[in-house]
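Weekly structure sync, notes
Attendees: PL, DS, HV (note-taker this week)

Item 1: dTDP-4-amino-4,6-dideoxygalactose transaminase
DS walked through the input record. Source organism listed as Zhongshania antarctica. Sequence as pasted into the shared doc:
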Amino acid sequence: MTDKPIFVTQPFLPPLDEYVPYLEEIWDSKILTNGGQMHQRFERALCEYLGVEHISLFNNGTIALLAALQELRVTGEVITTPYSFVATSHSLLWKGAKPVFVDIDPVSLNLDPQKIEAAITPQTTAIMPVHCYGNPCDTRAIKAIADLYNLKVIYDAAHAFGVEDHAGSILNHGDLSVLSFHATKVFTTFEGGAVICPDAKSKQRLDYIKNFGFQNEVSVVAPGINGKLSEVNAAMGLLQLKYFDQIVTRRKDIDAYYRRCLAGVSGIVIPDRERQVVDNYAYFPILVESDFGISRDELYELMLSDNIYTRRYFYPLISEFPMYRSLPSASTNNLPVASAVSRKILCLPIYPALENTDVLRVVDVIRNV
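Item 1 (cont.): predicted structure, written out as tokens:
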């Protein structure tokens, strides 16, 4: 008998009977999108829960990134990481900006602040770091560089829902921060995203951008796009928010269990986390070193043969895809840490419904090597 499949992630789905009243309210209102009551309630609830002043909801994280770049009028060159999901750099190409890749820190796996200054040119207008796996960037160092060179900072915080550092919500750093609520994320609305704004004017402009630029029924004040979050997605977000603390508690337990079970396994390294105030345990990455016995890809295939679906987040690097590899900054020589990490990284399954017996099944494959 084949063992049940174990996926790298599964969305937390609240009981269906709790979702139905929200759907009935939407049906009764006859408002399915365009900033209805669910949208407004969800927006307020997120601000309160996340500890942010202003937030603009979007239909997905990629459109939210595009809108953030549009709001800040980003052009020219933008320094970013090659170690991320392709949406990070794709948003720059769509905006007509040029990604400039900088290597990552070997511990945090985030953009290395010590490498940023050398990449700045007269054409540089912004920095787009990523809080990889929800692990906070060195926001103080990045701010100091941005202030010195008068650069904008847009954080891709797709993994960082609910994460806090020394100053509170990680989302309050930079000129703008962008969230993703995709089904693979620790917090999901099926599809969705958001931009965290520093002030009401920025939020208003982003609200215009996501609704074709409409200020009112007869006035268009910006070259906008259709980026609105539907009422159905907002309702799922409200329901998810009720369970989020419970979700994170379970993920924390799974993280700790993995660490205990994998302690002492030769050739398996668990990257350190920053000592942030609040973690969300969004992913559980390991590095498969050369002394493990088999390669990362061989372990990946071995897991697959046992119906365990891991992910090589992030492999290949963004800089290795055809639309980027001709850039001078995409050279492997320029990105030695990111290149090495991408060939060793493996994200193990972690989600609230994962049982300890499932974790042991994953661990047994690793230990039996």
